[in-house]
Each structure stands twice: as structure tokens, then as C-alpha cells.
Hints:
The complex is a heterodimer.
Chain A: H1 2-10, H2 21-40, H3 78-114, H4 118-131, H5 134-144, H6 149-176, H7 179-186, H8 191-227, H9 239-245, H10 255-281
Chain B: H1 5-11, H2 16-23, E1 30-43, E2 46-59, E3 63-67, H3 74-81, E4 89-98, E5 101-102, H4 108-114, E6 119-122, H5 136-143, H6 150-163, H7 169-172, H8 182-194, E7 200-204, H9 212-229, E8 232-237, H10 240-246, E9 249-254, E10 257-263, H11 264-269, H12 274-281, E11 302-303, H13 320-324, E12 329-333, E13 336-339, H14 341-345
Parallel strand pairs in B: 3-8, 3-9, 6-7, 7-8
Antiparallel strand pairs in B: 1-2, 1-4, 2-11, 4-5, 9-10, 10-13, 12-13
Amino acid sequence: MTLIRKLGEWSKPIRGKDYPTIPFLILLVFVVTGILAPLLVLHSPTQVSLGKMLKPPFFQKGGDLKYPLGTDQLGRDIFSRIILGARVSMIVAITAILLAGTVGVAVGLFAGYIGRPADDILMRLTDAQLSVPMILLAIVVIGIFSPSLLNVVVVIGITSWPRYARLARSEAINVKQEDFVVYAKVAGASPLRIMWKHILPNLLPSIIVLVTLDIPRVILFESALSFLGLGVPPPTPSWGGMIAEGRSYLARAWWLTVMPGIYLLLISLSANLSGDWLRDKLDPSLQM
Amino acid sequence: MRTGVKYIGVFMAESDVPSIMNQNTALSEVCLEVKNLKVLFHTPRGILRAVDDVSFTLSRGEILGLVGESGCGKTMTALSIMNLIPFPGKISGGKVLFMDKNLLDLTQDEMRLIRGQRISMVLQDPLGSFNPVYSIGNQLSEVVRKEKARKERYGKVVHALKQVRISNAEDRFHSYSFELSGGMNQRCAIAMALLPAPEIIIADEPTTALDVTIQLQVLALLKELNKSGRTAMIIITHDFGVVAVICTKVVVMYSGRIMESASTFTILKSPAHPYTKSLLASIPRIGGSKELHAIPGQPGASLDSVQGCLFASRCESVSPICREQTPPMKEVEKNHWVSCWKIESD
């Protein structure tokens, strides 16, 4: 009980600062490792070294500080693979969300502002997209075109845009009823100009919050795809892939699965907590 | 009718009376003429007559009060002058003559030159008048975007802000709407309407969302601007207090139709239509009776099928003919028009 409350404390500001420092720090480290990945690896993450396979993490008996988190079944350093996997996750998350966000917000903004009949058509399109199970779509698409980074990004983008569309649409409907939109019309602004200059900036707070909350979801989805063999193809390390491969060795070499799992947990949790804080911060009901 | 006389002392200064009396005889050019305007809404339940055969004129320097309860078509009338009626409404008849040109005949591009430039609007909600994302100076500058030089635009905007009595206008240029109070926001909205030096300003319930002391300030400001710039104004309101303070003439609307129109002084001194009389009687007065005088029933626009005088169902002086035939507009005194069967019989 207190542990849960303690975890909740993490999302609150730490003394002196009015933002949640620990999640931010973790996310910062994540981004930096993603960018500098090749420089931070201790050993080549793809170098196979069968003599060193299944070494335990350094704090366990038989462990080696040279391979701090242990090695996998092919002797590859787990730590280095996790670092590189972070880069893969980051690229996938940013690109997929950019794709889904741009398409989704455009659709939602248009539907919300223009109204019927465009609204009806676009929303039915959104419903259609939502009714297709994500994993099924992934299996079909990636089955037809072989697994690759691009295909993973595309699939995640295709399955994610509806949530942006829905949010953008409901916010657009609210904003368009404000008087300044009428003033803009009176001043002679075209619908496109109004949507771009007046409505869109007012949607951004909600969209930004959705993005922060979507990042962990996307990383998890990518991991799920890798788990199923549909993700980024080997030998490129990916957290989901590592977790999947480690399944068979769970009994004797738990670190194969657990180490990437811990990182996945940390990043998801930090992103979620940051998103929560951001949502409170951007709440329009608090002035200034 | 002597009912109105008591209100003159409450709302208007005695000294205002002579100038208002002379308003009708002053040499003033007509700048806006609304003739038999009709706005219909095609709804699944039938055709709704939001504006039904409305006619009035507005001359330079006049302030017209468009009065009525909620839903009587005042805002729709104003929107149709700007040709901004939202779907599913349609302007289905009549003319809106601005400087002898029918605005309803103009193309959207032609209308864009008039809307916001020669006829501008001030709306009700002060806090929603400005986009919170941009500074008010930024938004005011959009109105004078024809001016290419940034310094010129800044100068014009600051001048307009000073005209509406915003202190520290140079700093306020960079403020955001949520940093300003409701009264200041509304004054900035008035500045926005003033900037292009329009011939007509249409104010839709400009003071309804403000508290009473600020109301008076804003109204005084509008009156002053009208006097100095000879800008004609249409003030839409449901509050006769507002009318008495600044309007020179009044049009009373009910359910999309005009019931009575006259100068403010005449309406307050000798209201002829039962609806107007009831509206004036509904104003609570200090020292008056404890019971509030109310008009029974609900206001609103009427469906096509209703016959006769639209106020018949709520009128105190109703008679059988009221329900059968629509009374014509009759001039009972000079420039005092009423649509009521009771006047005929008096």
C-alpha cells in the first residue's frame, strides 16, 4: 500500500522543483542513450562469442564486470544490446507517433471544424480503422511485406491515428464555438486559415499530452511485435525481441528476459508519469 | 400612456431628452436599410421563421437598439446583415441596403471587403473574444493587416487601445486575453471593431457578461465613440436599461417579427404595444411592489404554421382577431410604428 503511494510520489514534484525529476531524468537518459547508442556499447551487440554464452549479471556468482548485465545464448553482451535496443525503440516511437499524430490530427481537425457531411465520412473511416484488431493487421501487413523497421513504423502509425483524430475532433468542436472564431470569420479568414492559425494551436495541449502517454504504448506495441517475430528483424536488438528470445532460457538464465523487461518498465512508467504531470500542467481550467 | 415617464429619470439624464427629441429631425443620411428581411431555418420539424419580415433603417450617428427576449431573432438579424447565417438557416427574402448596395447580392469576395472593415461586430463573451494563444496586439493587428509596415500597424493598434481607455496601451499590446479582466477584454474587442473605422458597429449583447459598474463604463465608451466618430451602431440587448442609456431609437422584436419601433424617448414615454408595455413593467424597481411582473409563457421563434399575431398566446389584451390575422404595422405617431390590433380599436 505504502509502496504504491511511494510510486505515486514519484510523479509529484521533488522539493524545490515543480516538475517530477526522477521520471524526467530517466527519460532524458533514455533519449541520450538512444542518440549516442553506438558510442556507449561496451562490446559489439551483434558479436557472437560462443565461449562467453549465458554469463550471469555481475552481481551474481560467475558474473563478470566486463559484461555487467550478463550475456545471452550467443554470448552477446546484454547491456550493449539493451542500449542499442533503446535506439530502435526511440526511433520507432518518434516516427510512428509523428506519422499517426499528423494524419490523425489533420483528420480530426477537419472533421470537427467543417462538420457534416465531412465529419460523418471521416468518423466512419476512423471507426473502420478502429474495428480492425491491431495485431491482426500487423500480422497481415508484415506477413505480406517482410519485417523491417519501416514496416513496423507504418503498421504502428496506421493503427494509432484514430485516437488522435478523435481527440482533435472533440477539441476542435469546442474551440470553433468560441467568439474569436466568429471574429476571424468577420475579418474575412478562410476556413483553412482559421483551422491552421486559430483552432490547431488550441488543440496542441491535449495532443501533446496524448503523445507523452502514447510513447510507452507504442514501445510496448513494438515489443509485442518483436515478441511475435514481426518486429525489427534480427540481429538488430529490440527489447521485445530480447524478451522473446529469453523465454526458453527463463529457468537457467533469467537475465535474458528480465533485464530488457526492467528497462521497458522504467521507460513506460516514466513516460506515463511525465504525461500525467504534463496533463495537469496544461489544464486550461488553471489560469496562467 | 404614462407608464414610461417614470423611467426617464432613472435611466436617462433630463438633459439628454431634448437632443434625443431632435434626433429625428436632424439631417442624417441613411447608411443601412433593412427591408422585409426573412431568415428561415429548414428543420426536420418544419420551417422555423427566425426573422420574419423585418424592416428598419439606420442613419449615420444613430444608435439603434434591437430589443427582445432570447430567441426572438435579434442575433439572426444582425448576422444576416453580415451574411453569416449558419447552416441550416437561409436568408430567403428581403434586402439589406448598405450605402444603396444590397449586401445580400454581393459575392463572398465582395462581402469580405465590407465585413469587418466597414461593418464590424462586437460579441457577447469577453473572455472568448480573443484566442488565448496569441497576444491581443497580435490579433488586433490582423484587422489592419492591409498596412504593410509593422510599426504602422503597432501604432494604429495602440491608438485604438488608447481610444477605448486601456491604460498602458503599449504594454497591453503584448498581453494575452487571460491576463485581462472581462471589462478590459470587452474594451479590446471594441477596439478591434473600431480599428478599421467602420461606418456601422453591430454589438450583440456587449455588456450582458459584465458586472453592472463595468457595463456603464462600456456603454459610456460606446456612446462617446458614436458621438466623436459618427459611427452608427446597432446594439442588440434584452435589457431596457442599456437601451435607455445609449440608444437613440428602438426596435422591439418578438418571435422574429417587429412589434414596435420608435425613438427611445417615445418608447419609454408612451409604449403602445402590449409586449413593450409588459417588458417595461417587468423591470423591478426599488420601492415598487414585491411581486415581480412576468409575462406568462415562453418566447422563441415560430414554426411556419402559426397564424395571427405571434404574441397572442401571451398577451394580456388579446382578442379573437389577434389569433386569426397578423396585425399590420401602423404609424401611430410620427416615426412610431406598432403592429397590434388593439391600437386599431383604441
